[in-house]
Amino acid sequence: xxxxxxxxxxxxxxxxxxxxxxxxxxxxxxxxxxxxxxxxxxxxxxxxxxxxxxxxxxxxxxxxxxxxxxxxxxxxxxxxxxxxxxxxxxxxxxxxxxxxxxxxxxxxxxxxxxxxxxxxxxxxxxxxxxxxxxxxxxxxxxxxxxxxxxxxxxxxxxxxxxxxxxxxxxxxxxxxxxxxxxxxxxxxxxxxxxxxxxxxxxxxxxxxxxxxxxxxxxxxxxxxxxxxxxxxxxxxxxxxxxxxxxxxxxxxxxxxxxxxxxxxxxxxxxxxxxxxxxxxxxxxxxxxxxxxxxxxxxxxxxxxxxxxxxxxxxxxxxxxxxxxxxxxxxxxxxxxxxxxxxxxxxxxxxxxxxxxxxxxxxxxxxxxxxxxxxxxx
Length: 377
Hints:
Layout: E1 12-15, E2 20-21, E3 27-28, E4 32-38, E5 48-52, E6 78-79, E7 84-85, E8 90-94, E9 109-110, E10 115-116, H1 126-139, E11 147-151, H2 153-164, E12 171-175, H3 183-197, H4 214-228, H5 231-237, H6 257-270, H7 275-287, E13 308-314, H8 322-334, E14 339-344, H9 358-375
Parallel strand pairs: 5-8, 5-11, 6-7, 11-12, 12-13, 13-14
Antiparallel strand pairs: 1-4, 2-3, 4-8, 9-10
Helix pairs in contact: 1-2, 3-4, 3-7, 4-6
């Protein structure tokens, strides 16, 4: 694979003309989506790929911002000659509704009050996020996406796209994801949310003019990181090795490397993410349940799917284990959906889709090449 980067890129903004009617019954006006694009849209507008990001991600999937020394969050997969080849495809990634990375969310200014929304921001769902993305795709003049790709919560968006707007999705690649959260996944999210809400600086979400609930958010991130790694990854990366010492401190310092790592991840996270956005996005993930949706004749949602799917799971992902992906593939095949499935051997747990993996790269490249030929771009 080519290691060439896209180079300098810039964030763009799109303001929705119409308010969004949310699943909760509320209506959200003046919605702004931050997004980035890479490559060139062909004349037929048939080479567009939408990438959907996970919980703490953003629109910056590849390339470099001016003055930054770190590339986008999927720099290893997106770029000239890479698995998602920007010499060939027009790639779009937008920051999800409810986030804090440029799109409208609880930290945005409420036009009715002139202050940050806080908990006045309505609860949004994965379907609401996809509805906002569709407005962006319409704005770009794209009638059909050659592919929608996403991992984790991005995979939920990918599935939602293929069901809510089946005629707009030629192919879909959900990675390391699920049709709905298990009780265990919901439990981890709830403990993380409670960590934020127990921070005295949270102030029921109204903390934007004062000290932020950094401690609560850091703990929430630490909890999340535990679910993203596997036992094997933890053992290989840390074991029981001590951090910069030869013996126990006999106090509550970070004696072990794994403790130091989690504290570092928590501290780093509070510098770039909003606590309320964490609450809203994890709740949206918990609400997501593709299995509960039915067609008018009470058939599975996959009976109306038109996309060609590539479903990918990872052996060490215990948050969204392979059995969940197999159940999804089984439901697709029951309705004669065109689906390919692969479980990739990887020791790094749920985060494996974000890490260098030649097999995943070859699989994405090969599948997209086949889709491009079928779609005749």
